[in-house]
């Protein structure tokens, strides 16, 4: 009974441990990376700041409104606010005002600031989307590296399983005197080499898993793994389009190009803002004010004077003022002129950067187009090599079984097959990734189906 309980507890522990390991698909990895990347979160905050800038630019069109009030008490010499004559007494005074001002014309800089704020928000969105595109590509590459490592590891283990059978059979033949002991040593050396391949393969898969987890910013490496899936070369007709067609298509939607174009538009608005400083500015203002003083005296109509109460004084002494102000720039030490020059240079730099980004995109697509063709041929060549090596191994095995080949030569034939199988796996995933890159530049989503 005690042993049964222990067995059940052990089984429960193993099941719970295995249940904690989540198997991630490519789509889940991509979505998780985009949602949890810290740089993306920073760029999203920059986008929020850009939206606040739009609110600031809108506020520049609206009139300002402010109110003020003050209360003071003077003892000794002061000016009587009623008759503006000197007096020597104690007085309590209250002043209040409400002021509004509006910019009527400022060289259209408010308009350009609004346009710039809108364009800056769009540019920050393109910047964010471009980062997401880069992350998707990086995650897809890392995911395929894990898949490639896992597939190679399966191949290594399958090869070792075959070698174990050969080792067992060779031991029997050596013990029966049919084969020399040197053949057994050769097979044991082959088995040891394959065990080393398995160890290296496990390390490769672990490193690839860690790299993928780091891209996803997951620190629980031990419980992170991808789904056990095998992928064949996905069907694609992307090469039916020329590299030029793919490039022209990419220009219409690529976020890095849209970002560069937005930067050119931003530079144009900056130049307009700088030139606006050459023009005069016109503003208007309106002010309402009133006051109270406990030493105020006004005629009572009967030859005497009296001090009105607080409320009455506020109505008696209130008043308004309004007007307009025109500022004409004449000379400011070439500040405006130099700012225009700087903005002009920034515009030219933005245009050059746009052309440079287009050239870089074209070169990237051209290279990706060549890579697809190259890796497709490399994969096909690897398949043919594996087929030839496998036939050669079958022939070598037949000769070895009949005593016409020694164990060393047979081991070399087996090693050539092992290398050919590894090349097939490597070129297969290299080809898949290059294919997906080219499709990505053509506007197709990254999937392995």
TrEMBL record:
Residues 1-19 form the signal peptide. Keywords: Cell outer membrane, Coiled coil, Membrane, Signal, Transmembrane, Transmembrane beta strand, Transport. InterPro entries: OMP_efflux (IPR003423), TolC-like (IPR051906). Residues 33-60 form a coiled coil. It comes from the Bacteria. Belongs to the outer membrane factor (OMF) (TC 1.B.17) family. This is TolC family protein. It comes from Flagellimonas hadalis.
């Amino acid at each position: 009974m005690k042993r049964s309980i222990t067995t059940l507890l052990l089984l429960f522990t193993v099941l719970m441990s295995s249940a904690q390991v989540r198997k991630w698909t490519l789509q889940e990895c991509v979505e998780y990376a985009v949602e949890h990347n810290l740089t993306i979160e920073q760029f999203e905050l920059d986008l929020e700041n850009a939206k606040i800038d739009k609110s600031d630019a809108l506020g520049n069109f609206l009139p300002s409104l402010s109110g003020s009030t003050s209360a003071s008490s003077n003892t000794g010499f002061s000016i009587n606010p009623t008759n503006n004559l000197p007096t020597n007494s104690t007085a309590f005074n209250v002043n209040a005002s409400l002021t509004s001002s509006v910019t009527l014309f400022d060289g259209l800089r408010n308009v350009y600031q609004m346009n710039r704020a809108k364009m800056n928000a769009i540019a920050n969105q393109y910047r964010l989307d471009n980062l997401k595109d880069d992350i998707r590509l990086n995650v897809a590459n890392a995911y395929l590296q894990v898949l490639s490592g896992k597939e190679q590891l399966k191949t290594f283990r399958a090869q070792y399983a075959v070698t174990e059978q050969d080792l067992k059979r060779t031991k029997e033949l050596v013990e029966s005197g049919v084969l020399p002991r040197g053949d057994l040593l050769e097979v044991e050396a082959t088995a040891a080499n394959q065990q080393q391949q398995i160890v290296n393969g496990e390390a490769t898969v672990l490193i690839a898993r860690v790299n993928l987890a780091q891209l996803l910013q997951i620190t629980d490496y031990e419980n992170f793994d991808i789904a056990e899936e095998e992928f064949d070369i996905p069907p694609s007709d992307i090469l039916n389009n020329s590299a030029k067609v793919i490039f022209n298509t990419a220009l219409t939607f690529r976020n890095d190009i849209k970002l560069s174009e937005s930067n050119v538009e931003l530079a144009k608005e900056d130049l307009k803002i700088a030139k606006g400083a050459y023009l005069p500015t016109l503003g208007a203002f309106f002010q309402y004010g009133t006051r109270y003083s406990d030493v105020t005296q006004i005629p009572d109509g009967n030859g005497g004077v009296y001090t009105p109460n607080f409320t009455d004084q506020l109505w008696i002494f209130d008043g308004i003022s309004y007007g307009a102000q025109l500022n004409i720039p004449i000379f400011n030490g070439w500040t405006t002129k130099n700012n225009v020059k700087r903005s002009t240079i920034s515009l030219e730099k933005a245009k050059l950067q746009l052309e440079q980004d287009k050239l870089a995109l074209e070169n990237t697509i051209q290279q990706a187009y060549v890579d697809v063709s190259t890796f497709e041929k490399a994969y096909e060549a690897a398949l043919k090599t594996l087929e030839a090596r496998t036939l050669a191994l079958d022939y070598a095995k037949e000769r070895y079984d009949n005593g016409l080949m020694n164990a060393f030569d047979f081991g070399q034939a087996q090693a050539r097959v092992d290398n050919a199988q590894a090349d097939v796996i490597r070129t297969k995933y290299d080809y898949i990734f290059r294919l997906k890159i080219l499709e990505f530049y053509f506007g197709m989503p990254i999937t392995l189906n």
